[in-house]
Amino acid sequence: MINSMTGYGRAAGALSPRFFATVAVKSVNHRYLETSVRLPEYLWELESSLRAVVSEQLARGKVDVTVRVQRTAQSEYSVRINSQIANAVLPQLRAIAEEHGIGWTMSGGDLLRVPDLLQVEAVDSDIEEGERDALIEVLRLALVAVGGMRAREGESLRADLETRLAAIEEHQRNLAGRRDDIRREAIASYQQRVQEIAGAAGVSVDPDRVAQEVVLMVEKGDVAEELTRLSAHREQFRAAIDGREPAGKKLDFLSQEMLREINTIGSKSRSVDIRTLVVELKAELERIREQVQNVE
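Given the sequence above, the corresponding structure tokens read:
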């Protein structure tokens, strides 16, 4: 079973009486696993933990995780007046007023405009251990939804790859059935070339020597080994898409090896019919390579 790398999932839940979180996860194709996490500033310390959870569930893909947290209970605040600032500012203001003969009064509103004089902080601003665990569980739920979508798309990919493999198998069977034609074609071509070269040079060539050299050249031009390796790669490919492990990288490698064998077959034949079959093989394999880029 194979999975796509494209998916989306969303989950939400209460972290505690204080917080409610919504987590959205989106994944698209990527050569490796690359995770981006967007968090409120006071949750930045959780980024590595959330990345670790993603890596447990997903093997490949560019994954964007967005976390939004709403406060559901009013915070308690501590209010503190910075007396050090007050003791430094107020005498200086009074001295300036007296120096210039200015009447000096200061209201409470004036004091509030002094930077950092009044400090207000939320007492319960830090997230607690239980809230961290709850946020991770919400992320896991979102990843389950992502995994479900990736699995459904993976089934579609698998069906298409199976169809392409069947087409390649059929074309390969046709090629195997033409092996004798390829050999006869090669023998006739080589004999004709030897005769043409000998005639042009005005020399006679021993027929037995010609036959020996032609046999060697025909053996070099035989596609039996390429067809055998192509079959082996095709079966490995099918086993990979039926397996339980992420197979995208392996499928990419196998498709490259299959293309190598097909290109070699094409280079060994001059028959128009054989070259047509090779083109069909390459067309099917190119579609497979495009689909494999979507596989986890």
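The mean pLDDT is 83. Try to locate this feature in the token string yourself.
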